[in-house]
C-alpha cells in the first residue's frame, strides 16, 4: 500500500497512480474494444476494413524479403499465426503502457490509442481493394476505445475525501468486466462471420462449372432472338441486372462443401446428395426464362438466362417417387418452403437443379451453390434458391410458404406481354416510331403479339425468332405517330391460340392479368 493522499491533494493524477495493474488492464481492454468494434463494423464494409487484418496484411506486404524468408523458415506454414500472435503481443504491451500513462487530466494513453488507430487507418488505406469509407470501422473503434479508457481511468479515482483501498474500486471492476465481455463476444462474432465470408469467397473462386457433353448443350442463341431496339429487353439478361425476389434479409452463405440435398418423404429410397455426388452426374445446359407471380402488368420481374444443372427427373427416379406423391416440397437453407407439382418435374420439361447462370457460378443472391429452375412455373412454386431439402408429399398434406399466405397452390405461368420502348415519358417526335417489347408464356410459346393505338384496330407486331417455348419472345411494331397524347396497348396470343384477357386482376393469388398500356406524348 502506498501513502494515502490527503484530502486536499487536488489533482486526481496523484491518486490514480495507485492500481497500476488495473490501469494496465484498462488500457488492454480498451484496445481490445477498438479491435472488436472494428471487426464487427467491418462486416458492413469490406474484409479489408478490419483494422487487425488490414494491419496484418499491410505488414506482410511491406515486410522486406529477408524478413519474410526468415519468418517462413522459422514458422513454416504457421507464419500467419506467428504474425498475429506477434501483433497481439505488441498491442497488449503498447495498450498496457497507454493505460498506465492515462490520467483524467492528462490523456496520454488516449493519444497512444489514437496513434495505434492512425496506424490502422493507414493500413486500411493501403489495401488494394479498399475505399475511403473502409476507414470507418477503425475510426469508430478508436473513438469507442478512448471513451472506455477515459471512463475506466476515472472510475479508479476515489471520490474526494475518501481514502482509497488496495482493491480497485467496484465501479471499475464492473465496467472493465462488462467491456471485456463485450469485446470478446463482439470480436469472436466478427471473426467468425468474417471467416465464413472469406471461406465462401474462396469456395466461389475455386468453383468449376461442370462440363456439359456436346449432346446436352443448349442450342446456340441465334442473333434473330434479339430485335436490336435501344432500350428493349435483351434476349439474355445479365446476371447483375437479373431481377431478384426472395425473403432473405441476409443472403445465405453456403459453400459447396457444406451443401447437401436430403431427399425423403414418399420415396422408395432416401438419398442425401453431396456436392461431389451432384458433380458426378451428367449436366445439361438450357436457356430458360424465369418470371415472378408478383409481377404487375408491364412489370420488370422476368429474366432469361443460360443455366447449367442436373435434371430433377433423374434424381427423383433414383429416389423412387411413390405413386400418390404429387408435391415436391423443397426447403432452402434459410427455411423458405416451395411446393412444386411432381407432374411438372417429370413430364419431360427441363426442370433442373442449376449450379451456373450465364457461364458463372450462381451469384449468391440467385441461390449459390444450387437452385431449382423449372420452365413454365412461377418462381414461388418452383425456383427454390439455396435448396437443401426435398420432401415428397401431397398437396392435401403440406403447404408451402406462399400458399399459407393466400397465393395459389400450383402457379402455372400466365401469358404476359409488355411495352419496353418508347420508355414512359420519353420524348417522342411525330413520324415513324418503333414500339418494342417482350412477351412470354414459358413452356407454351408465343405465337402472336398485337399492338393498337387509341383503341384502334389491332395491328400485328413482328416477332423475333423463337429460341424455344421456354423463353420469352421479343417483338416490335412501327407506328406513324401524330402529335398528341396516345395510348398504346399490347396483347399476346400463346401457342394454344389463347389471347391475353383484357380483365385486370392483381398478382395475388395466381398472377396479374390485363393488357399493358402506355401513354405516349408525341410533340
Ligand atoms: N430460398 C428462396 N428461394 C426462392 C425465393 C425465396 O424467397 N427464397 N423466392 C422465389 C421467387 S418468388 C422467385 S420469383 C424466384 C426469383 O429468383 P431470382 O431472385 O433468382 O430471380 O426465386 C424463388 N426462390
Ligand atoms: Mo416470385
UniProtKB/TrEMBL annotation:
<keyword id="KW-0812">Transmembrane</keyword>
<dbReference type="InterPro" id="IPR036374">
    <property type="entry name" value="OxRdtase_Mopterin-bd_sf"/>
</dbReference>
<feature type="transmembrane region" description="Helical">
    <location>
        <begin position="81"/>
        <end position="101"/>
    </location>
</feature>
<feature type="transmembrane region" description="Helical">
    <location>
        <begin position="24"/>
        <end position="45"/>
    </location>
</feature>
<dbReference type="InterPro" id="IPR000572">
    <property type="entry name" value="OxRdtase_Mopterin-bd_dom"/>
</dbReference>
<dbReference type="InterPro" id="IPR014756">
    <property type="entry name" value="Ig_E-set"/>
</dbReference>
<feature type="transmembrane region" description="Helical">
    <location>
        <begin position="172"/>
        <end position="194"/>
    </location>
</feature>
<dbReference type="Pfam" id="PF00174">
    <property type="entry name" value="Oxidored_molyb"/>
</dbReference>
<feature type="compositionally biased region" description="Basic and acidic residues">
    <location>
        <begin position="493"/>
        <end position="505"/>
    </location>
</feature>
<feature type="region of interest" description="Disordered">
    <location>
        <begin position="493"/>
        <end position="517"/>
    </location>
</feature>
<feature type="transmembrane region" description="Helical">
    <location>
        <begin position="108"/>
        <end position="126"/>
    </location>
</feature>
<feature type="domain" description="Oxidoreductase molybdopterin-binding">
    <location>
        <begin position="249"/>
        <end position="401"/>
    </location>
</feature>
<keyword id="KW-0472">Membrane</keyword>
<protein>
    <submittedName>
        <fullName>Molybdopterin-dependent oxidoreductase</fullName>
    </submittedName>
</protein>
<feature type="transmembrane region" description="Helical">
    <location>
        <begin position="132"/>
        <end position="152"/>
    </location>
</feature>
<keyword id="KW-1133">Transmembrane helix</keyword>
Amino acid at each position: 500500500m502506498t501513502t494515502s493522499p490527503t484530502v486536499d491533494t487536488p489533482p486526481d493524477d496523484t491518486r490514480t497512480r495507485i492500481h497500476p495493474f488495473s490501469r494496465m488492464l484498462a488500457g488492454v481492454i480498451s484496445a481490445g474494444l477498438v479491435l472488436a468494434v472494428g471487426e464487427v463494423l467491418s462486416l458492413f464494409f469490406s474484409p479489408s476494413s478490419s483494422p487487425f487484418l488490414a494491419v496484418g496484411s499491410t505488414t506482410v506486404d511491406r515486410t522486406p524479403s529477408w524478413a519474410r524468408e526468415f519468418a517462413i523458415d522459422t514458422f513454416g506454414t504457421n507464419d500467419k499465426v506467428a504474425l498475429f500472435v506477434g501483433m497481439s503481443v505488441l498491442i497488449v504491451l503498447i495498450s498496457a503502457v497507454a493505460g498506465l500513462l492515462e490520467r483524467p487530466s492528462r490523456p496520454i494513453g488516449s493519444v497512444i490509442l489514437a496513434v495505434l488507430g492512425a496506424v490502422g487507418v493507414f493500413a486500411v488505406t493501403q489495401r488494394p481493394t479498399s475505399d475511403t469509407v473502409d476507414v470507418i470501422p477503425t475510426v469508430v473503434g478508436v473513438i469507442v476505445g478512448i471513451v472506455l479508457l477515459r471512463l475506466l481511468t476515472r472510475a479508479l479515482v476515489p471520490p474526494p475525501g475518501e481514502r482509497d483501498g488496495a482493491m480497485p474500486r467496484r465501479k471499475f471492476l464492473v465496467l472493465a468486466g462488462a467491456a471485456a465481455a463485450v469485446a470478446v463476444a463482439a470480436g469472436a462474432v466478427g471473426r467468425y462471420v468474417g471467416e465464413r465470408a472469406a471461406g465462401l469467397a474462396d469456395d466461389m473462386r475455386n468453383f468449376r462449372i461442370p462440363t456439359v457433353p456436346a449432346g446436352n448443350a443448349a442450342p446456340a442463341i441465334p442473333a434473330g432472338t434479339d430485335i436490336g431496339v435501344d432500350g428493349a429487353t435483351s434476349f439474355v439478361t445479365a446476371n447483375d441486372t437479373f431481377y431478384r425476389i426472395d425473403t432473405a434479409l441476409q443472403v445465405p452463405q453456403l459453400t459447396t462443401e457444406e451443401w447437401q440435398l436430403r431427399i425423403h418423404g414418399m420415396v422408395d429410397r432416401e438419398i442425401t446428395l453431396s456436392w461431389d455426388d451432384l458433380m458426378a452426374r451428367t449436366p445439361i445446359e438450357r436457356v430458360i426464362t424465369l418470371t415472378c407471380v408478383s409481377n404487375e402488368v408491364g412489370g420488370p420481374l422476368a429474366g432469361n438466362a443460360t443455366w447449367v444443372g442436373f435434371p430433377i427427373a433423374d434424381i427423383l427416379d433414383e429416389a423412387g417417387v411413390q405413386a400418390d406423391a404429387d408435391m415436391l416440397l423443397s426447403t432452402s437453407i434459410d427455411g423458405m418452403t416451395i411446393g412444386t407439382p411432381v407432374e411438372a418435374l417429370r413430364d419431360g420439361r427441363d426442370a433442373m437443379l442449376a449450379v451456373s447462370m450465364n457461364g458463372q457460378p450462381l451469384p449468391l443472391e440467385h441461390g449459390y451453390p444450387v437452385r431449382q429452375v423449372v420452365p413454365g412455373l412461377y418462381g414461388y412454386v418452383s425456383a427454390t434458391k439455396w435448396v437443401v431439402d426435398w420432401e415428397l408429399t401431397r398437396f392435401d398434406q403440406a403447404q408451402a410458404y406462399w400458399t399459407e399466405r393466400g397465393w395459389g397452390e400450383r402457379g402455372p405461368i400466365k401469358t404476359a406481354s409488355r411495352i419496353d420502348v418508347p420508355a414512359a415519358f420519353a420524348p417522342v417526335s411525330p413520324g415513324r416510331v418503333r414500339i418494342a417489347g417482350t412477351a412470354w408464356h414459358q413452356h407454351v410459346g408465343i405465337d402472336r403479339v398485337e399492338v393498337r393505338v387509341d383503341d384502334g384496330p389491332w395491328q400485328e407486331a413482328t416477332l423475333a425468332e423463337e429460341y424455344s417455348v421456354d423463353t420469352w419472345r421479343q417483338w416490335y411494331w412501327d407506328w406513324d405517330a401524330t402529335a398528341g397524347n396516345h395510348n398504346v396497348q399490347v396483347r399476346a396470343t400463346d401457342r394454344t391460340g389463347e389471347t391475353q384477357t383484357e380483365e385486370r386482376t392483381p398478382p395475388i393469388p395466381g398472377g396479374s392479368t390485363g393488357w399493358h398500356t402506355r401513354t405516349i406524348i408525341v410533340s
